[in-house]
Amino acid sequence: MKFSIEVNRGSILDLINLAEENNLKINSISQGPINEEMMNIKIDLADSSKIQDLDNFVKKIVDSNSMNSCERI
What we know:
This protein is of the alpha+beta class. It has one domain: Alpha-Beta Plaits (2-Layer Sandwich). The chain has two helices and four strands; from the N terminus they run E-H-E-E-H-E. Strand 2 and strand 3 (38-45) form a beta hairpin.
């Protein structure tokens, strides 16, 4: 499953650690700037990921900063 994540003042390492905390395996991950404060991170998670783990992952991303967004692509 692929997600596009827009984060404010986060890092790619934070998302890797968050995925590991939620028992998610990352197939690939890339990042690019949006502006000085925001970056876009595209993350491809293994299809074997459980829905509950994915829901927790997305919720933690959005809850960590009101500027963050996460959507499936």
